[in-house]
Write a structure and sequence with these properties.
5-stranded mixed beta sheet; 31% helix; globular
Length: 391
């Protein structure tokens, strides 16, 4: 139910001036025109972006099929099993429930992310697990941000004349949740400080250049916070679009007036009694604490389950700097790649990003361009080497 944190222009780069005429023609499709209405705006509503991504994918699928690809849409990938000769045997379940198997040299896991309820309830905030401090008042951001999420929250707040809502997290989803609350129609009866955002890391806005930041009155950055490739300030760590506007207001940058209905509280030590009190006094606690990857079950040659780094007791990124899947011991799983939400990829080298960045990057432009290209080149490398040897 929210806007994207990628611009409409970024979505449309998938079709604009595309070398395939069949894809370039989609620039005039009604779904593309719907996204185009938000050029220059603070992101496109995901309900508008979704149909555009779907028609683009369908068109790309037709092109791939015309060149010999076998597309199995509507199927569920159940598991992949290592085979002799460095191959994978993937078990699929079709729309009719029937099973089949596909053997391939590589697999690419692009299955998105999810918010784990058990992990959220067990998360320690201000010295105690959320299951203990929030209890039945806890609501996952993944549930709240969906269509119908605001209506579900209204039911929870029934009878509260001046609701107190706590959002836990310092990510884009946390700020998106705050924005959704502020813009709810009809308006929620929020008083001053009705929303409190509890966050651990400092909230940083993105700027297209050092000078743009300084001109706006923002100087809380060093050279390590500037991307050496693009010159962007907080290219990866900085908030963008709607979330950025809220952060700029709350920080009072450039003379902006903070939003009175929102209060920020940066979590300190585990014994943060003030944060505990805020959670205790809330009507609803929205946990915007990040996503975990929907990793496909993988098995080795002996039939044993391969525990991925993202599935370890102390979860780590699912992929390494080359988008290769990594197991819990830190070893690369050959022939397996990952991309997308919660995969854990961190840009490096020519891909850019500020040296100070810690965490993983989730960006449509990166996936559609440099990261996607990285995986594509890895998949094609053996064929290119064979062709070179023959030549």
């Amino acid at each position: 139910a929210i806007r994207s944190d990628s611009t409409a222009e970024t979505f449309l780069t998938a079709v604009k001036d595309n070398p395939h005429p069949e894809i370039a023609a989609l620039a005039g499709h009604p779904a593309a025109l719907a996204v185009g209405r938000y050029i220059g705006a603070l992101g496109a509503p995901l309900v508008e972006a979704g149909p555009f991504v779907e028609v683009t994918g369908n068109r790309l699928g037709r092109i791939a099929a015309a060149h010999g690809a076998n597309l199995l849409t509507g199927h569920t990938a159940v598991s992949s099993h290592r085979q002799p000769g460095d191959k994978w045997r993937t078990v699929l379940r079709g729309p009719d429930g029937a099973s089949q198997e596909v053997v391939s040299r590589n697999i690419v896991i692009a299955t998105g992310g999810y918010q784990c309820p058990e992990r959220v309830r067990g998360l320690h905030v201000a010295g105690a697990a959320l299951a203990e401090t929030a209890g039945e008042r806890l609501m996952l951001a993944d549930e709240f941000l969906k269509i119908g999420g605001v209506a579900a929250l209204r039911e929870r707040l029934a009878g509260s004349r001046a609701p107190r809502i706590v959002i836990i997290g310092g990510s884009t989803s946390a700020l998106a949740a705050a924005t959704l609350l502020l813009n709810a129609t009809p308006a929620l009866p929020l008083g001053a400080g009705g929303i409190t955002v509890l966050h651990r890391e400092q909230l940083r806005p993105f700027y297209p250049s050092r000078q743009a930041a300084l001109d706006d009155g923002f100087d809380d950055f060093t050279d390590d916070d500037i991307c050496p490739v693009s010159g962007f300030v907080y290219r990866l760590a900085g908030f963008r679009l709607e979330a950025r506007e809220l952060v700029l207001r709350m920080l009072g940058i450039g003379g902006r007036t903070p939003e009175p209905r929102v209060a920020l509280h940066r979590l300190s030590a585990e014994g943060d009694t003030a944060a505990r009190a805020v959670i205790a006094g809330a009507d609803v606690v929205i946990a915007a604490t990040g996503y975990r990857p929907n990793a496909l079950p993988l098995f080795d040659l002996s039939g044993a389950r391969i525990t991925l780094a993202s599935e370890a007791e102390q979860p780590a990124p699912m992929v390494d700097r080359h988008c290769r899947i990594v197991d819990a011991a830190g070893h690369v799983v050959r022939g397996a790649y990952g991309i997308g939400l919660a995969a854990g990829f961190v840009p490096w080298g020519a891909l850019g990003g500020e040296p100070s960045f810690r965490g993983n990057a989730n960006g449509l432009w990166l996936w559609q361009n440099d990261v996607g290209r990285m995986i594509g080149e890895a998949l094609l490398a053996p064929r290119k080497e064979a062709d070179a040897a023959v030549a």
